[in-house]
Each structure stands twice: as C-alpha cells, then as structure tokens.
Amino acid sequence: MNSQEVNSSSAMFNDSLMSADDALTFLLNSASVSNKTETVSLDNSLGRILASDIHSTINVPGFDNSAMDGYTIALDDSQVSQTNLSFDIVDRITAGSTGNDLKMGCAARIFTGAPIPKGANTVVMQEECELSEDGSQISVARAINLNENIRPTGNDILEADVILSSGKQIQPQDISLAASVGVGEIVVFKKIKVGVFFTGDELVEPGNPLSPGKIYNSNRYALVALLNQVGCDVINLGNIEDKLDATCDALETLETQCDLIMTTGGVSVGEEDHVKPAVEKLGELNLWKIRMKPGKPLAYGKVKQTPFIGLPGNPVSSFVTFCIFSLPFIKKMQGNTNYGSKILKVKANFDSKRAKPRREYARVRIDYSSETPLANLYPKQGSDVMSSVVWADGLIEIPENTTFEAGTILNYYPLSELTR
C-alpha cells in the first residue's frame, strides 16, 4: 500500500465538531489503492475488483447469424417489398454448422445462431412461411425486406473494444461477457487484509453466561461480518487483555500482516481506554468528534504506515459509521472506482419540528405503496438499539439545523448498498 501523511495541524482536528462531509472527504483522500494484483479464473472472479481493462480480441458475434428459427433467403432486388413469393429450399443450416452458398431466389432452413450463408440477405421467421406438401418450397404472403432477423458481425462487441474497465466489481453478467470473448482468466486486485481486535473487560463472548456488569461483544461479530461481506480477508485477534502492553502487541502483530487495522470502542480519553495511547505510541491518531448522530467519535490514524480506523463503541454507532465512512474507504483501497454510497430520494413520513445541531442517520423502513416511497421511522433511535438496524431497510439523512414536515424529500441510503 502507498502511504499518505496526515496533516494533524489542520483545523479539522481541533476540538470542534467536524462535519460528516469533511470527515468522509479526508478519509477518501487518505485511502491508497492497493497495488497488489493476482490472476484468477472466471469461476473465482465473482465480487472481485478488476485491476486492468479487458479488451476483446474478437468480434461478437464473429459472423452474421440468424436471430430466430426460420428460412434464410437470397432475395433479389426486384423481389423486395413484393408479396406472395415462393422459394425453393436447397439447404438446412443448424447452429454450429455452415451452409452452402445460396443462389438468388433460393432459401435454406436455418436455426437461431446459425451462420448466414453467402448470398443470403434476409431471414423470415418460420411462423410466416407456408411449407409445400412435399417440403421443397416455402411461400411468404407478406412483403419481405432485406436484412430481416440477421444479427450482423460485431453487433454486440467489436474487436479491440474495452468490454470491462479497471476498477469494476465483477458481477455474474460481467463474467458472462468476458467468457463471450474467450477470456478465461482476469487480473484482479488482491483482497485487502483487515486486522481487528477488541478490548474491554466488560465484554463476554456469546454462548457464555453473563455476570453482573458484563455485556456480550456484539460489535466483534458485526464488524467481522461486514468486512467479510465486502470481500476483505479478516485477521481477527478476538478479545485481548485490556492493558496497554497487550494492545501495543496486538497492533504490532497486525501492522506486519495487514493493509488496514480496525477496532470498535476504546479510543476515548478514559483511563481504561488503551487503544488511543497505543496507536499514538506506535504511530499517530486523530480522534474526531463528528457532527452526526449516531456515532460522534471516530478515530483515524496510522500504526507505523498501516492505516487505522477506530469505530465508536455503541453498536448502532459502530454499524452506521462503518457504513458511512469505513466502507467507502475500504472500497477505494480495494481498487473499486464505484466507492461512493448510493443515495436515493424518498419522502419522510414524519415531521422534524426541532432543528438539531448534528446530522442524523435515522433508521427507517420504506413503504412502497404510494407513488413516491415513504420513509417510516423506527420509534427508538438510540445508539444502543441494534434492533432498529435489523428492522430498518435503510438510513435516512436528516440534515443538521433543519426543520421540515412530513412529505419532505430527503436522502436515503439502502442498507443493501451500505453493507456490500
């Protein structure tokens, strides 16, 4: 990975609240695209990021061919637009075979995808042809035009065309297109390695009993699942001892193996929060207070030269800040040129009577029963209410310092796009 220095003297890093837009811009400017590539087969390319353009070495189709089952005819100029014409059937051409040259006024039975023989200049679908009793002729009642139902050479792709561009995330249809020009392997960016660990004496692994004052470590499983879903290789150290030396050891272990290190919680200024001093000891850390809800605290820095992102500790805050900030950062590192979040427009089915100083990413569910989709709020919007994320199908952006009534058009982020 290439590195980029963080300007910690920027006004962006003082004690005032930073806008969500400024934080995202800074993160994206700090993200360096991976320079590591590998060659994979088409069968193993789904979801990977293309590292170089794919050019076609052939025309597709490579020959004029029939668009349907019917009869290909060598139509004379004098016969164009005439009705009630008859033609002798002199050949039968199936897909994968080549027919003989057709003389004027003759026809050949042809099937979809079969090459148009030399001399033929149109195809009439079989439903429009009346076959003689002995099967030697066809009659066509309607007028026939030249080049009907013929797919010309290069109709889909021309030789030397760029069919897939670098930075594209490979989808099933892309695999089909690459195969159609004979490409069996493609060059993709290697998956980035993201190292994670978790601290906190209050955390208990699911499956174990809770003692007083303890909580289950849901953030661990959310973060690992999100990283796996976006195509990262995850190195998970799990829960480590909540001490400075153990935290430094974990960071140094991951720094030598990973392209990015991520944690949740533990980056505030409390006496028991060791992640912040550990990162600062090994590199540099900027703790931002972002003008957003949920998820005001977000940390970015470096452990030596490896980027570090520290997400907030509350589960909804951690989830939302991953979606809004970390995912675009990761996508850019992966080489994906389409790293921006997809934004749709929906109508708010609720009022906002009091202007709030922070931009809010509220959990909503969309009602599609009206012409314009309506966004309904989950009744509990606390940063600890993870059930709101499960209930919702997206986040709606409520601008800071704004009041509005139901029916106002707002930005909407589908969770289906924010988590992959």
What's the CATH class label of the largest domain?
A: Alpha Beta
- Gap between N and C termini: 22 Å
The CATH architecture assignment of the largest domain turns out to be 3-Layer(aba) Sandwich
Largest sheet: 6 strands, mixed
Tell me, rounded to a whole number, the average pLDDT.
92
Structural class: alpha/beta
General form: elongated
Q: What share of the residues does DSSP label as strand, in percent?
A: 25-35%
* Strand line-up of the largest beta sheet: 7-4-6-5-9-8
Oligomer: single chain
Computed over alpha carbons, the radius of gyration is 31 Å
The CATH topology of the largest domain is given as Molybdenum Cofactor Biosythetic Enzyme, Chain A
How many extended strands?
Answer: 26
CATH homology superfamily of the largest domain: MoaB/Mog-like domain
Number of domains: 4
Low-confidence stretches: 1-14
Q: Helical segment tally?
A: 8
Helix content: 10-25%
In a nutshell, what does this entry contain?
With 420 residues, the chain is of the alpha/beta class.
Can you walk me through this structure?
It is a single chain. The chain is α/β, with parallel strands linked by helices and about 425 residues long. It has four domains: about 170 residues, Molybdenum Cofactor Biosythetic Enzyme, Chain A (3-Layer(aba) Sandwich); about 55 residues, Molybdopterin biosynthesis moea protein, domain 2 (Alpha-Beta Complex), CATH 3.90.105.10; about 90 residues, Molybdopterin biosynthesis moeA protein, domain 3, CATH 2.170.190; about 80 residues, MoeA, C-terminal, domain IV (Beta-clip). Helices cover about 20% and strands about 30% of the residues. Strand 20 and strand 21 form a beta hairpin. Helix 1 packs parallel to helix 6 and helix 4 crosses helix 5. The radius of gyration is 31 Å and the shape is elongated.
